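Archive entry. Fields below.
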Amino acid sequence: MRFTARTSSDGVTEQFFTLGEIPGVLWTPEGACGTRPLILLGHGGGQHKTATGIVSHARRYAAEGFAAVAIDAPNHGDRPKDEEFGRIAAEMRAGMAAGEDPGALVAGMHGYLAGQAVADWQAILNAVQRLDQVGVGPVGYHGMSMGCGLGIPLIAAEPRIRAAVLGLLGVHGLAEDAARITVPVQFLVQWNDQMVSRNQSLALFDALASTEKTLHANPGKHEDVPSFEADSSLRFFARHLS
Amino acid sequence: MRFTARTSSDGVTEQFFTLGEIPGVLWTPEGACGTRPLILLGHGGGQHKTATGIVSHARRYAAEGFAAVAIDAPNHGDRPKDEEFGRIAAEMRAGMAAGEDPGALVAGMHGYLAGQAVADWQAILNAVQRLDQVGVGPVGYHGMSMGCGLGIPLIAAEPRIRAAVLGLLGVHGLAEDAARITVPVQFLVQWNDQMVSRNQSLALFDALASTEKTLHANPGKHEDVPSFEADSSLRFFARHLS
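PREDICTED_STRUCTURE:
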């Protein structure tokens, strides 16, 4: 793990790093030492590790004593794009323009990325938990949309993740992995989501095997999650990881 | 308004009162003086003003600086039962035993009680806001199940109510009043509610005209609302009434 840049402001230290091929950012409380809960932040499709929503959640978590880490997903952000990704992305755009079900198209893309994404997160988790200011504490995962689509296979495979905030995605291609998830989940639905049908969303919530799962639905489109849900996510992780 | 008993514990003062025919309880922070937000608490069918859930919410609100008031609904608790109520209640029980839709049966009962319930709450609001330790501050309404069924006509009619926590009820008989509600609403759904169908629940949430409304769904039956929703209700009212 190679740290490349470090800044601190408002009580939060932000460190850019690379781990092998994976570029990432770690946020911790300024001057942190010792073990603390860690939140893995998965960004949305076409976004990257420092998308506005990722950074604001990460800084919020770090301000409350958590560590938070974001990485560029495969074929996203500062990572190279491969040919197959380009082909799938072009097909996805063409399919959407032709009025095909976005749920199925997006699931195809997530399926292509998930294997690498799960391996990336497991390597990151190993490396980050070796740092003095993080340590081997409880781990949460926070990801919406593609961050949910890559997070569900990760959580199904990774027993270190003990709670998750997920959402803005339907059940396409995820039912089997969702049925292997038993940790507490807070699941966000946008009631007028133009990308994800309401029924497909509710079906993904239903597919989770977790006995403690809570669904928050708000009016508005895919990108209109209200800001009070950030507070709610923080309290959810505080309840389950602290 | 005649106060009949007063006790204080854990920083909260509880005062029993009657206003005309209406028996009620007021909770305030111990030693409170001056204006504060007020929460009206509507109990469920067959319950009363000191049902466990009502008292625990009321004490929680008062401990955070709110005033809270609960009354016995018409034909409930310490109030006399009239013949027509007995007839409707018997019909409701018989219909449920015969496997009729509980939503329609319950709506008939709520329809019978709503006119009186709205008048009661308006009289209570007038009287309680004249007290020194309450005053004319912002008002919220909290009611589940029958508390929701009587609350929706009240909120539709009463501009002093500025936010509400509602739920555990379907749209039967409530669509028109719900369409007149524009204040922020937090709406609870039990995902495996044996009394209220999921579709009828979601339809009531949809019928609310509020631009800020948020739905919280949790696994379990009608009576299994998880305790963390009490924290969430408190924060909702703190956000909208403070």
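CURATOR_NOTE: Helices of chain A lie at 52-63, 83-97, 102-128, 146-157, 175-178, 198-207, 228-241.
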